Amino acid sequence: MTTDTPPGPPLRGRVEKREAILRAAQRVFGAKGYAATTMDDIAEAAEVATPTIYNHMGNKEQLFRYAIGAANERLNARTLEALAAFPADPEDLREALLELAANLTRCMLDPDAWAIRRLIYAEIGRFPDLFADTVNRPGRDASLDALAGRMAQLAHAGRLRMDDPARAGSHFIALIWADLDAESALGTRPVPPDAVRRTERTGVDAFLRAYAP
Amino acid sequence: MTTDTPPGPPLRGRVEKREAILRAAQRVFGAKGYAATTMDDIAEAAEVATPTIYNHMGNKEQLFRYAIGAANERLNARTLEALAAFPADPEDLREALLELAANLTRCMLDPDAWAIRRLIYAEIGRFPDLFADTVNRPGRDASLDALAGRMAQLAHAGRLRMDDPARAGSHFIALIWADLDAESALGTRPVPPDAVRRTERTGVDAFLRAYAP
Amino acid sequence: MTTDTPPGPPLRGRVEKREAILRAAQRVFGAKGYAATTMDDIAEAAEVATPTIYNHMGNKEQLFRYAIGAANERLNARTLEALAAFPADPEDLREALLELAANLTRCMLDPDAWAIRRLIYAEIGRFPDLFADTVNRPGRDASLDALAGRMAQLAHAGRLRMDDPARAGSHFIALIWADLDAESALGTRPVPPDAVRRTERTGVDAFLRAYAP
Amino acid sequence: MTTDTPPGPPLRGRVEKREAILRAAQRVFGAKGYAATTMDDIAEAAEVATPTIYNHMGNKEQLFRYAIGAANERLNARTLEALAAFPADPEDLREALLELAANLTRCMLDPDAWAIRRLIYAEIGRFPDLFADTVNRPGRDASLDALAGRMAQLAHAGRLRMDDPARAGSHFIALIWADLDAESALGTRPVPPDAVRRTERTGVDAFLRAYAP
DNA sequence: TATGAATGAGAATTCATTCAT
DNA sequence: CATGAATGAATTCTCATTCAT
């Protein structure tokens, strides 16, 4: 075949290299923060020459945005998955909520999730739109909406009682998370599984006391 | 009289210089993050020559620790104050909890508090002991202990019912804070006061439903 | 049929590509100087891929030489043309010299000519042979020789009086050019036509006073 | 005298360092051009650490402007000196003009002068104001004004005849310079002294023929 | 003690050039 | 041949830190 300009994504060539760069960037940025991470660090981690990063990503800031965006997408997908697994009309509500809580804390305690969260906290000053555009909008909002939907279903089914399903969702998250952030020293210290379980259980129970009909 | 501070805004004595450096460091670190802040930035903000900072603080890392420590102390004092203001045996429990909630969120939404929180999130990777030694131990723990004490008092007085006062305190904080972090875009966006009030109110009410006898 | 040149302004054949590269190189080198010009700049201006330049021209230095050479050739041709247009035995000598002066200054004030002149000034340090081999020899020398020939003719015809026709030619050029270089800010500022005319006229008149019999 | 600056010229003070940097910059820029000169080159030539250059000069462009400005000043001073040495009412006009011519060509053929001239030609594209602000205004204009003044004096004394002294000055310069630029290959090749003398002499003679009363 | 000046060690980014197709 | 991708080697500029006063 002659060359008939391969149609499709304009970004051509070694897609694998692009992927490797993004993965490496997530890893290194997550470990060292934005400013302390050098492009050479990432190049080395990705096993690529430094200029290759510039060819693919433009500059450090762009790379950061791409990396955050990609990581966030991955993480949000897992959160939505956890929510999707929640049964429409659970037989044992407490049991179902406990499992949901376990799934959610697992997502939130994941080292990658912590890394991203720390990065966003750290850099929101210099990337003010990052939170709104990249993180909150497509990620957190979607998850909270989905959770609110579940809450509304439960209310409609008479299993819970609430005025504002979105608020109930927030409260659910707040209660099962409680002070796990402090316990894990912002993700830098593993939390013993039974401490997590206990936090989830007491959270779910408080939630049920507050929202059971 | 030792120091005859020359009139006007001019050069200060010894201790005042140290104070000025610490204040400047809190301000600049808080605004730009650790790595993006230069010693010259701080020197300029403190109206001091750069080597003076080294004379007083040793090096950048030390300065950071001192600055975080000082800021944290100030912030914690205010939190403890808020807790101390809680009446021992409130007449109207809901009213008292609402006021406590308002005091606590005021502390937590304070721009300085956000700046410190962001810094700690950002740098905990490179200052692993910072959280444990400087922040959590003398600060958060004290506050949570004080709150737990209040909860225990209320339980003992039969106003609330709970197994674990510390946990109840965590739940209280969690509920009145709910998603104020997202609402304020991690402290980079002001939250309308009535949104804060609503969050506090729904939080307090959920708490009361969960913990009232 | 090997090439099925896609329609539009598309890829050219072999020689046209070489031409396009040379033209682009003259343009870009002329605008930005040697060191500040990147091969990618030229590739983009020539609508060619960068390696194609290497295929055709070897390397940056070679390309520079080729480009300077080609531009110089073009410019010199125009100068020689102007000289050729000078009548062998002009009726009105002053008129004829004025026209010659106008033709020559037009060549010398041409933006392309300025660009090349600036380039040569700039790079003669790093391309010492450039001036001798590429510019002076086939270009300037030829023009000055031709001008000297004209002068000799005029002397022989008794219209002018001189010892050294080459020197007279230099003086002619010098006088009609006078400080047009400064007036045009080395070619970066247009000179009003009547200022040019005045310079030519006063130059020609001084020349005639100096060289008329 | 407190400080007896350690022996030799090794460690300098403050102003001396600035001077050394400027001298080195003139030398290196003059030899290699703006873009091809690195700050490290200059630092090495000045026996200074690279950041010291930034402390003193800001950045490369600033340094270039300072260097050009300083060199230009020096050169112009010498040109004005040459003009000042011209006698108010010379006994032998031709002799005086020959001496002036010799002084002027000496200034103009000076390697430093050539270096600056080449730099300005080279960089006027990227420093459009350089010529107008730094070079032409305080330098060339002053010299040409002074020369025009001399011409006017000579005209007033009846030694020369002219309409426009400034133009006569330009013509003088043009004639005594003639094609010395080409002869010296833009300053990269020494011109034998007697070739210079001959150019001056023929120039002065042509000038006298054109402007003698 | 406080400071203006100096510097060694990087860091982001660019560029001429070469592969592999 | 032409080209998209890749890279080693700079280059400008910054910064924490130290001297010398």
Automatic annotation (TrEMBL), chains A, B, C, D:
Pfam families named among the record's database cross-references: TetR_C_7, TetR_N
DNA-binding stretch(es), residue numbering of this chain: 38-57
InterPro entries, alphabetized: Homeodomain-like_sf, HTH-type_TetR-like_transc_reg, HTH_TetR, Tet_transcr_reg_TetR-rel_C_sf, TetR_C_Proteobacteria
Keyword 4Fe-4S: no
Keyword DNA-binding: yes
Domain HTH tetR-type: 15-75
Keyword list, A-Z: DNA-binding
PANTHER family listed in its UniProt record: HTH-TYPE TRANSCRIPTIONAL DUAL REGULATOR CECR, HTH-TYPE TRANSCRIPTIONAL REGULATOR RUTR
Protein name, entry field: TetR/AcrR family transcriptional regulator
Organism name: Actinomadura rugatobispora
Taxonomic lineage from the root: Bacteria, Bacillati, Actinomycetota, Actinomycetes, Streptosporangiales
